Amino acid sequence: MKNKEKLVSIILNCYNGEKYLKHALKSILRQSYKNWELIFWDNRSTDSSKKIFDTFKNKKFKYFFSSSHTSLYEARNLAINKSKGQFLSFVDADDMWEKNKLKTQVKFFEDKKVGVVYGNSWLLNETTKKKKKFINYTIKDGYIYNDLIQKYNVGILTAIIRKSCLNSLKKIFDKRYNIIGDYDLFIRLSKKFKFKVIQDPVATYRIHANNLSILKKDLEIKELNHWLKINKKSLGLLNYKKIKKKIKNLEFLNLKFKKNFIHALIYFLKFIFLIGNIKNLLILMLPKFFLKKIMWFY
């Protein structure tokens, strides 16, 4: 069977996603690649998400209502159990896909060593309608474990994963995490499988007031510290230091946005050997109102 004939399972986890859900569902229907199924996992929504879903009369749309409200990553694991495709992709209720996303990506799986195909994305500020590319450099592909440790850039909304590769892991999404489950999964996949990349944006990620990753930066940092602790031995010293530096940068930026100049300055001086670069010095000195304008995607 040719790859173009193989089934792609699209996982959409929804919890009170009524505001943007119609756009996400329409972007799936517009796909030029036609052999897909949508696993719509309703994580016990209390809004109009089910009513919106029901307006789409399509046999490929499959609705599941969770027996209990769970974390995002547990919900994704449960939804995966309902999928029948040889490839898996993910879209959230506030995301959108480009028309040729699946068609462009599936062909790369002709290489049996490829486990993941991902791409660039657009970042869309829902308030200002500003739009920018997420990645502005040439994205590496192949066996990119060390590259992802250095500069993680996989957006789950852009990725397609060979299901047999997921099944080879001891676990898929780690239910202990609420924010960094994607990060943990793709790092583990990159240790074993080849990644291919689409340099152009294949999806749009909305930035709005209810994005979990924006609301809970403290939790993201806590989870990264936990992940680093339990993976310290397998990472090696160099990669351990790289991730430690990344966490310190996040902590510094979080202090700058949430606290005052003095808090950020003390932290900057305390870890100056790790984060004492020109970029962070500029961040330290710039007023918060101006910083928020130029870093609206944070």
Keywords summarizing the entry:
14 helices, nine-stranded mixed sheet, globular, 298 residues, Spore Coat Polysaccharide Biosynthesis Protein SpsA, Chain A, alpha/beta
What's this model, at a glance?
This protein has 298 residues and is of the alpha/beta class. It has 2 domains: 3-209, Alpha-Beta Complex (Spore Coat Polysaccharide Biosynthesis Protein SpsA, Chain A), CATH 3.90.550; 216-294, no CATH class.
Assign the CATH class of the largest domain: Alpha Beta
Amino- and carboxy-terminal Cα gap: 44 Å
Name of the CATH homologous superfamily of the largest domain: Spore Coat Polysaccharide Biosynthesis Protein SpsA, Chain A
General shape: globular
Compute the gyration radius: what is it?
A: 20 Å
How many strands?
Answer: 9
Task: Tell me about this structure.
The chain has 298 residues and is an alpha/beta fold. It has 2 domains: 3-209, Spore Coat Polysaccharide Biosynthesis Protein SpsA, Chain A (Alpha-Beta Complex); 216-294, no CATH class. It is built from 14 helices and 9 strands. It has helices spanning 18-29, 49-54, 72-80, 101-106, 145-150, 163-167, 181-192, 212-215, 217-235, 237-258, 261-270, 272-275, 278-285, 288-294; strands at residues 8-14, 36-42, 61-65, 87-90, 95-97, 114-125, 131-133, 160-162, 194-207. Strands 1, 2, 3, 4, 5, 6, 7, 8 and 9 form a 9-stranded mixed β-sheet that branches. The radius of gyration is 20 Å and the shape is globular. 33% of the residues are buried.
